[in-house]
Write a structure and sequence with these properties.
This protein is mainly α. The chain is built from two helices and no strands.
C-alpha cells in the first residue's frame, strides 16, 4: 500500500514538474 501511495504522489509531482512527459512514459520508467 505504501508503494502504491508513493507512486501516486510521484505521478502527481512528475505531472506538475514535467508536464511534457506523458503518464505512459512515467509508468514505463518505473
Amino acid at each position: 500500500m505504501f508503494l502504491k501511495g508513493k507512486g501516486a504522489i510521484d505521478l502527481v509531482l512528475l505531472d506538475l514538474t514535467m508536464p511534457h512527459m506523458s503518464g505512459l512514459e512515467v509508468l514505463e520508467r518505473i
